[in-house]
Specification:
By secondary structure, this protein is an alpha+beta fold. The protein is globular. Mo-molybdopterin binds at residues 712, 743, 857, 1024.
């Protein structure tokens, strides 16, 4: 089968299909290109992002506004955003906010934090007056005349004109109208695609090929084939059969064809709800509720109703509610037609044979509901995530009573398929709808729904809690409905319970961004300090920005697929490549003999370690051959996976580190209280949008090679490739145009992969391309270090902290990588914003049998800082003081020294704290939250404010050196290059701003081509937020050198222009090329003495976040965040605010969402976006405000700026502590005064478990003394 698989620039498609007709006429659909088989596109018009608009033709308003609103950073996800917005606008030229957020629910971005993308979206929306007034009021009262809240000017935007859009191609229109429908058959290399046009023909095909799957949207079969190695020699595509696309409104319900998309089903149900009486549409409303969050629109546009049902997936959102609603299936075969209840297909688990192999699902009948029916779900992320548990429930009472006549309860996610609590439902018939029934029902359901202990997600207890919690919510809903029917007889539920009946909804976020205006005296041509659009922003939005896999194929190019270890610790007995070499298209297999030290030879030390790599003429052939490599292992002991395992086996990387200040032991003797505890912090996947990618092209002579690679450190790649090939570094030319996200993950591992690809290229004398799949990338590369912090804190009654003794253990994985350095940084930054007079802290990097963990944004501080804020919060709880009082009391106040004796001035720390307090209206909102919590039992709000001190520096001078090269051509144009890498942080944009100021010429005169080892040798890595600081100094130095040469010419002709001066300089033989250099920042740290000056300066910030939790499910909503950051004088406020927001949202992921799950054998389960959830549009705060601290100076960096890319991530923990605040309120209200521990990420599972009630007690076997006293 041939798939449309364009990786990124064609990530989403717009499809307009005349054969798919609705009453409103022809529609446009966005879809995931990686799921759509090309055979399914027959008769459709396909538009990719390049077709929407380009710099060569015209830029579409969507592309323009995304770029000018700064909605693009690394740019890799931008084409997908464009296609989602463009599709919506084709269908709804003036969409509502709700339609816009729904359109983006299926898109992910790792860089921006989504706010600027949504700002661009808002410019197209039909705004309600109330929303407009709210935004205007927020802006008017939030900043002074010296500050600005405008990062872009809407006046510059071209208008959206629907009449200028593409029409449906007349050729396709004529084909659809005039050509008779005929069966389509496509033959691939290994399989055949058959698309019949009649039901009879389909029945014949199924009789002849009963094992052949039916494919409509490919959302089930596609992933199975792509990720699980399932192969189907014949695929039948029934989407063109009219019988399977029927929509009929019957007297007793709706009949919907099995091939109808979920988007069509959603529209049909919405229209039915508007047109039919409410009592008939309860089930429609329940199904619609599930559809709103099922996948994204790109998935719903192609996924079919029939496929969802027939797959019988445990994680179906729809099957439980459809089964509970007594839906019927219309089946057809050569033997005739029959109707069966949908619930029958789940009767005996996944092996159920209610549907025969030769039968076809034609349609589904959804009957009108009778009174009480509801659907429920809880997922790792509110939208576009498979449910942990889903449920459908229906009850029918005897006429005029609350006596149960019929009851249906179905659950998804609890077993291998949808399950029914059949016995419980039968037992409860005849019971009255009251507390006694609730008690009995909960026990019966838990006894009947047996969850397998082998569940890979490990959420067994949570699932059980959700099972009874959902029934309780249904119980409350029905009680409330009974009250509506007869208020005198049925009192309903207490007012404080009502809010739990409302699910959290995604709203269009409102936001303010405040920054300091440039001085009025600054030249209009000088771009420094202005919100300049990312220089590649337009190219990102048009798909013209080139990433590694966009580079055109080289003649004879080969593709590489890696073979990885399936064991965590084992001896390799043999590697059999004979079968792989027989596969078509295979050229060679790269083994340890070819790449010593890069590929394991005799022993593997983690799952995911590269054993060999297959080079073939296509990616498909390489992958197929790689699957045929057979590796025989011999198990070795011990297998160390966790920090606890490492401690038990004394398995550590050396050296261990320690810092000490004051007399800790003596201080503990004098304090009023001592608390001890520990916190576990999970790892985090980088999840850069562009996976690890490299293209190696041998140049044909002198062993030269061009290496095009997605990396943060081309000089290191050059060094590793040269060493692997045994050639001097001057033969290896590394090129980096841009990187589609990195966050620290494209340093050492990129070197390993580039070396393997280079050896393959050298061996075969052909160009070799290696692009890791998302699953392989996550399996191989490692991420942020899991962390355990154990602490002992001594403090006084008034909250003053006098002594701290803390130990940090980090899971380094199987090789050292950067782990010891991460441990060191976690110690140096652990104090955060607090003066601790007596402190002892230790850090150990654990050696385990996991892929080696590596650098990640924040580099140890997000973990050690969270440990510090945890014991600060616990001190507040012990003393009865508020957390903000304890934080403020212990904060650095005056000129101080850190625990390693480096001086700091905390003035801006205090300013950030006070401004955030004021801008967030902290105390008034805290009072409002307390009132809300008194009036709501099952929903609670929480608020937290957290300060931050973030030291900047790379520890050694040589790590922060930088160079630049600037050429001026005789036409006056300038070519600029430097050693920094564009990762999405806008470094090239800022460097052009620097050059523009220094040379006093417009930015349009200056071009940046690429970062290359051929132009800037020995460049340091783009890490630690230092790129702009150090490269900016180098660029400034080069420009000043050029200007110094030009100055005599300028003095001779002061009224001339730039072009005149350059022409004259050339004629006078003045060199128009200059290098610039920056030696780096002084830095030192003596670990023996425990003192030094490892950092250059400090950034400061404060974040205040408010959340709301659902105590029944553990779900939460981020309501508002206010951030105040001291970043010196911003070179580009739009870029810098975007970096703060993006880092903050990544921090939300770290602290509340992103979970890495491993099997007991060390196999990573969470590989890819299906299992691993990063924040989406639904997760950012509904109100998201960022202010840059005004009048802040920094004498150490270019133009008084500060390197800020990493700092904002830690502020995401303000959400963690707001959640803790809400949980504390729950526990206090329920009399649970005992100290409790919360680990990171603080997921819905943890929140629900911490909100202890009789349901949680029931699941863990401790029965409450007064069970179900909630009504």
């Amino acid at each position: 089968m041939i798939y449309i698989y364009f990786f990124f620039t064609l990530e989403f498609l717009w499809i307009r299909n005349l054969n798919f007709s609705l009453s409103v006429g022809d529609l446009h659909y966005s879809a995931n290109a990686c799921l759509l088989p090309i055979c399914s596109l027959y008769g459709m018009a396909v538009t990719t992002v390049e077709g929407v608009g380009s710099t060569r033709t015209r830029i579409h308003p969507v592309q323009e506004r995304l770029a000018k609103c700064h909605g693009s950073q690394c740019g890799f996800c931008t084409p997908g955003m464009v296609m989602s917005i463009y599709t919506l606008l084709r269908n709804h030229p003036e969409p509502t906010y709700e339609q816009m957020t729904a359109a983006l629910a299926g898109n992910l971005c790792r860089c921006t934090g989504y706010r600027p993308i949504l700002d661009a979206c808002k410019t197209f929306c039909k705004v309600r007056t109330s929303d407009y007034r709210r935004e205007k009021i927020l802006v008017l009262f939030s900043f002074s005349f010296k500050e600005s809240a405008r990062l872009f000017s809407p006046d510059e935007f071209q208008p959206l004109d629907p009449t200028q859009e593409f029409i449906f191609p007349p050729e396709l229109m004529r084909m659809a109208e005039n050509q008779p429908k005929r069966t389509l058959v496509f033959h691939g290399e290994r399989m055949m695609w058959i698309s019949p046009v009649t039901l009879d023909e389909l029945q014949d095909l199924k009789a002849a090929h009963p094992k052949a799957p039916l494919v409509v949207g490919n959302t089930g079969v596609g992933p199975d084939m792509k990720f699980r190695g399932v192969f189907h020699p014949i695929v039948i595509a029934p989407a063109r059969i009219p019988d399977l696309n029927v929509v009929k409104c019957m007297s007793d319900g709706l009949t919907i064809g099995a091939a109808c998309s979920l988007s069509l089903m959603k529209d049909v149900l919405r229209n039915a709800i508007l047109e039919l009486p409410e009592e008939k549409t309860k089930i429609f409303y329940a199904v619609l509720q599930q559809l709103r969050t099922l996948g994204g629109e790109q998935i719903r546009n192609v996924a079919s109703l029939g496929g969802n049902i027939i797959s019988r997936k445990s994680t179906s959102d729809l099957n439980p509610i459809l089964a509970a609603g007594n839906c019927m299936l219309n089946l057809a075969s050569q033997g005739g037609k029959r109707w069966i209840p949908l619930s029958d297909i789940f009767a005996n688990g996944v092996g159920n044979n209610a549907i025969m192999p030769e039968e076809v699902l034609v349609s589904v009948h959804i009957p009108h509901s009778r009174k009480y029916i509801s659907a429920f779900r809880q997922a790792p992320r509110r939208e576009n995530a498979l449910p942990i548990i889903s449920a459908g429930m229906r009850v029918l009472f005897e006429e005029g009573t609350d006596k149960i006549k019929d009851l249906s309860i179905f659950y998804g996610g609890a077993a291998s398929t949808t399950v029914c609590a059949k016995q419980a439902c039968q037992t409860l018939i005849g019971r009255y709808w009251n507390e006694q029934m609730l008690d009995e029902a909960s026990r019966l359901i838990l006894n009947e729904i047996i969850l397998p202990n082998s569940a890979s997600d490990g959420k067994i207890e949570y699932k059980k809690i959700l099972i009874v919690s959902f029934f309780y919510k249904f119980f409350l809903e029905v009680l409330q409905s009974l009250k509506t029917m007869d208020p005198c007889r049925y009192p309903g539920i207490p007012m404080e319970y009502e809010s739990v009946l409302e699910n959290f909804q995604t709203k269009m976020p409102q936001s303010i961004q405040i920054y300091q205006n440039v001085e009025l005296s600054q030249s209009p041509q000088d771009p420094v300090g202005r919100p300049i659009m990312h220089q590649s922003g337009i190219k990102h939005a048009t798909g013209e920005a080139v990433y590694i896999d966009d580079i055109p194929s080289v003649d004879g190019e080969l593709f590489l697929s890696v073979v990885t270890s399936s064991r965590a610790h084992a001896k390799i007995v043999s590697v059999d490549t004979s079968e792989a070499l027989k596969e078509p298209g295979v050229f060679d297999i790269i083994t340890a003999n070819d790449v010593p030290y890069m590929i394991c030879i005799s022993q593997v030390i983690c799952v995911g370690q590269i054993v060999c790599a297959v080079a073939a003429d296509s990616y498909a052939h390489a992958k197929q051959a790689a699957a045929k490599v057979k590796i025989e292992y011999e198990a070795l002991e011990p297998v160390i996976l966790t920090i606890e395992d490492a401690i038990r086996h004394n398995s550590f990387f050396e050296p261990k580190r320690k810092l000490e200040r004051g007399d800790v032991d003596k201080a503990f003797e004098t304090v009023d209280h001592i608390l001890e505890g520990e916190i576990h912090i999970g790892g985090q996947e980088h999840f850069y949008m562009e996976t690890q990618s490299v293209l190696v092209v041998p140049k044909g002579e002198d062993k030269e090679m061009d290496v095009f690679v997605s990396t943060q450190h081309p000089a290191f790649i050059q060094e590793m490739v040269a060493a692997s090939l045994g050639v001097p570094a001057n033969r290896i030319m590394c090129h980096v145009k841009r990187v589609g996200g990195a966050f620290g993950g494209k340093l050492l591992k990129a070197g390993l992969l580039a070396s393997v690809a280079s050896v393959a290229a050298n061996k075969t004398n052909r160009a070799v391309r290696l692009i890791l799949s998302r699953g392989d990338d996550m399996l191989i590369t490692g991420g942020r270090h899991p962390f355990i912090g154990k602490y002992k804190v001594g403090f006084m009654n008034d909250g003053r902290i006098r002594a701290v003794d803390v130990k940090y253990y980090i899971n380094g994985g199987c090789t050292p990588d950067e782990s010891v350095l991460v441990a060191e940084v976690s110690l140096l930054k652990m104090d955060n914003a607090y003066k601790i007079p007596n402190l002892r802290c230790w850090a150990c990097a654990c050696k385990t049998n996991l892929p080696s963990n590596t650098a990640f944004r924040g580099f140890g501080f997000p973990q050690s800082g969270l440990v510090t804020e945890t014991w600060i919060t616990e001190v507040a709880e012990k003393t009865g003081l508020s957390p903000e009082k304890v934080r403020e009391m212990n904060m650095y106040k005056e000129d101080e020294q850190t625990h390693f004796k480096q001086k700091l001035d905390p003035q801006n720390l205090i300013r950030c704290w006070n401004e955030c307090m004021e801008k967030s209206a902290y105390y008034s909102r805290k009072t409002a939250i307390e009132e809300f919590n008194k009036q709501n039992y099952w929903k609670k709000k929480g608020i937290a404010i957290v300060p931050m001190k973030f030291p900047f520096g790379l520890g050694s001078r040589y790590l922060s050196q930088a160079a630049a090269l600037v050429h001026i051509y005789t036409d006056g144009s300038v070519l600029l290059t430097h050693g920094g890498i564009e990762l999405g942080q806008g470094i090239h944009t800022k460097m052009i701003q620097v050059a523009s100021r220094e040379l006093n010429i417009p930015m349009s005169y200056i071009h940046f081509c690429e970062t290359s080892t051929t132009t800037v040798p020995n460049a340091c890595a783009s890490v630690g937020s230092a790129g702009t600081d150090v490269n900016g100094m180098a660029v400034k130095d080069a420009c000043q050198t050029l200007l110094k040469r030009l100055q005599p010419i300028i003095n001779e002709n002061p009224k001339g222009n730039w072009n005149d001066w350059i022409k004259e300089a050339f004629e006078q033989s003045v060199s128009l090329s200059a290098t610039g250099y920056f030696r780096g920042y002084d830095a030192d740290m003596d670990w023996e003495k425990g003192e030094g000056q490892p950092f250059t300066y400090f950034l400061y910030g404060t974040a205040c976040s408010e959340v709301e939790i659902n105590c029944l499910t553990g779900d939460h909503k981020n309501l508002r965040t206010d951030i105040v950051m001291d970043i010196g004088c911003s070179i580009n406020p739009a870029v810098d605010i975007g970096q703060i927001e993006g880092a903050f949202v990544q921090g939300i992921g770290l602290y509340t969402m992103e979970e890495l799950k491993y099997s007991p054998e060390g196999v990573l389960h969470t590989r890819g976006p299906d299992q691993y959830k990063i924040p989406a549009v639904c997760d950012i705060p509904e109100q998201f405000n960022v202010s840059l601290l005004s009048s802040s100076q920094n004498p150490y960096a270019i133009y008084s700026s500060k390197g800020l890319g990493e700092a904002g991530l830690f502020l995401g923990c303000s959400v963690f502590f707001a959640l803790r605040d809400a949980i504390t309120c729950v526990r206090n209200e329920r009399g649970l005064k005992k100290t409790f521990a919360l680990n990171s990420p603080l997921t819905a599972e943890q929140i629900r478990a911490a909100c202890t009630d009789d349901f949680t007690k029931m699941v863990i076997g401790r029965w409450g003394s007064d069970l179900f006293n909630y009504v």
